[in-house]
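Task: sequence design from structure.
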């Protein structure tokens, strides 16, 4: 089972590249972030025509997450536990079944946190809520994949120039500590399970960042022990960033042996 995540930075602007990538990479489940549209205008039809079931938790202008699955959804639940007043569309959970068992997948778009103390407090609170959610779900002892744009640079090796990010909410120590606490619940960072190299998933549109490979790794696949035990491959489709009118993020994917 191939599970992928991609912050597409506007689904309607990226439909051509998304469809081409889906045909080439052929993922079974795709977690999308920053779709930047409401549920009613999400382009269901062309994606369903490619064989995907579609679940959407959208929001006008910004945010928004979606799930595409070649397998039917058994359950779909939008929204992260812990704050009934949080109306931002950043979290979508689904349970899918294959003939060999279930897989639980979450598409998440963690807050950026820059722009003032209130926004950073929201980010940290969101991360605490994510940890509580993960703690509860890990009790189920299922294959679980938390996939998305975490807006977290976990360590200096995850940035080409870490010194440029020391005052950024993505790299501040409280952010990194909460990410480490999440991992310490028993989750596996899929990329770090296969390589210690500096690899990136995001390149800013400014100052020729992609051409200089001046990137950061902020898109992650975190696996429960039952998913990590089945991990057979991981990849980053960096070439997508070099195509015309790209997202500033690229797809990250893993393969699980669910046979």
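Answer:
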């Amino acid at each position: 089972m191939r599970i992928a995540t991609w912050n597409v930075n506007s689904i309607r602007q990226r439909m051509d590249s998304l469809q081409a990538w889906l045909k080439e990479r052929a993922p079974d489940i795709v977690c999308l972030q920053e779709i930047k549209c409401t549920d009613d205008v999400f382009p269901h039809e062309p994606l369903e025509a490619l064989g995907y079931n579609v679940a959407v938790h959208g929001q006008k202008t910004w945010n928004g997450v979606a799930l595409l699955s070649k397998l039917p959804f058994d359950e779909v639940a939008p929204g992260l536990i812990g704050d009934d007043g949080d109306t931002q569309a950043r979290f979508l959970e689904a349970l899918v079944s294959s003939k060999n068992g279930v897989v639980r997948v979450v598409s998440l778009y963690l807050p950026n946190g820059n722009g003032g103390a209130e926004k950073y407090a929201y980010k940290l609170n969101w991360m605490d809520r994510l940890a509580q959610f993960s703690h509860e779900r890990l009790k189920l002892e299922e294959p679980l994949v938390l996939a998305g744009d975490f807006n977290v640079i976990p360590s200096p090796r995850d940035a080409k120039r870490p010194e440029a990010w020391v005052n950024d909410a993505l790299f501040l120590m409280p952010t990194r500590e909460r990410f480490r606490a999440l991992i310490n619940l028993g989750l596996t960072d899929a990329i770090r399970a296969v390589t210690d190299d500096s690899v990136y998933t995001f390149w800013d549109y400014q100052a020729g960042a992609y051409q200089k490979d001046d990137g950061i790794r902020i898109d992650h696949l975190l696996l429960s022990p039952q998913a990590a035990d089945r991990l057979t491959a991981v990849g980053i489709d960096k070439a997508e960033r070099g195509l015309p009118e790209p997202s500033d993020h690229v797809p990250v994917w893993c393969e699980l042996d669910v046979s």
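The two ends are 9 Å apart (CA to CA).
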